[in-house]
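User: I'm new to structure prediction. If I give you an amino acid sequence, what do you actually give back? Let's try with this one:
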Amino acid sequence: IVRGAMLLFAEAMEYPRLWLRILGFYFSFVRKFGRIHPDMPSGRLFSHLDSVKLPAEVKLGADFAQEFNAAYDQLKSEISTALREPNAESILISCFAIRAAQCAAVWAFGWQVGLLAGLLQFVAAPLSLTGSFIRLFTNLSDCLIHYALNISAFLICSVMLASSPLQLRLRIDMVFVIAFFTIDFALNLFVYFRTAESWNTARLVKHIAYGTFNTKTYFVVVLGCLYGLEFDLFVVVLASCLTKCISMTGLQQRLLNMCGWPCFAITFYVEHRIGHMPRVYPHAHKMHHYLHDTTAFDAHIYGSGLNEEYFWILAETLPCLLCPGMLFPYFLNGTTLYSSWTNKGAHSRTADGVDLSTTGCFDEDNFHADHHTWHRANFGSSTAPLIDLYFGTACPGLKGANGRLYAIHSDNQDSNSLRVHITEAGSTSCRIPHESDSPHKSSDVHPVVAVDHEGSSGAEAGDWRSRVVNLKELQEKRSVDAGGLWVALHGAVFDLSAFQRIHPGGAQVLQMYAGTDATKTFDEIGHSEKAKLMAKKRLVGILEGHQPDDFVVDFMAAEP
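Assistant: Good question. You get back a string of structure tokens that encode the predicted 3D arrangement of the chain. For your 560 residues, that looks like this:
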């Protein structure tokens, strides 16, 4: 007990230092993307590539990718050394309980108690502090511009409509709350049935239940804080129109450039890479990825997990509470509501035959849906796939998105540069193969594999401790047809042939790493003790030239 308490205390002392390291990484690198291309920070490069006549070519600086990835790996190693692997499920249960208590507190005792109750998440998940703070900064410019235009619209309406008898007010009352959640739920159903691949009922219900709690309790808290406030509808409409205008004219991005702040595609990529960092991931962003794949019900207005929302809750509520009647929350701005609508389609796995002409479809290539399958790929926005391709974080097999194919290669005339060729996709699909495109369409049609009473996958009889698997044999076992789907983890080899049918992360990711040593990916995604115990039943042998470590050592010491 004393030793455990000392370890907890030592880790607690590390958190402030790690918070500063994470924030330092974020604010340092989001400002350096001009080294890739001078027009990348402003977003003009992405706009140009969307409109340029194809085929086209663009030249990029090559050295920044290596610098960024090296600094990322260094920070990742530093955090992994300083902290033990947390129990992700314990964090999730604790923080869901805290959010439920926060929802109850804000409605029963008022916004002050509700907002204070939310601080408990940083006790249960300390690294969610930086995750939540960075998530705010990724879209903070949009929020600040919203409130600036909100004030402008209020002043304009105060002058022009001062003598008008027409008063249209929007009141946050129970009718509004019920209507808001009902409409949102209906839109989620519409997007699912209109655009998404069909799932079995049990799987869909699980996503509806989990996704609704993970994403909509945000609004339970926000609406509870704002309950009883009234907003002038003319101000809401005018501010929304002004926001749309400065966005369409490019004025908003020019203002950000003057302040030295990069476009959303860059801030989102850097924030998202940090969110998936080992040790950091279970504290916050994993809540957005807890279930395999994604639906409209898993889409938050800002595409985040429950533990990344605290500072956004403050940004939505405190200005309105300090200036009642003048300011209205950012989520009610028309452009934000539209972003929430597009996010539903972007978080759906688009079915075959559905494209952007279908109402509710906003990612026909499944760029972001594939991120929810692979987890450690496609970190960026589907509007800027070039970033993932440049940093080497695109999904295996990804060739492009939005009707454009990208090919990156070295510049023969300049060793410090890369050249990107962009061509029209035409009839070529930008989608990468998915489970539904493979011969093994579902768990019902996987080839039959011998499974013993413990659930092992038919590894050869005998004690796995005495068997040595060489690298060539491992590399040959890439499918059931090849004799098994084998993966190496922490110096041991596991046969996952049967397990792929029930893997919570889906069969595709296991098939991708079949025949390889997937230790790094396994650790970075984060797995519970229960998951590791499940792996014990599928041990084949020891990987030649490797010394078993981590949880495999415990298996070695256990009774045969």
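You can read the tokens as a compact description of the fold. Here is one thing that stands out. The chain has 22 helices and eleven strands.
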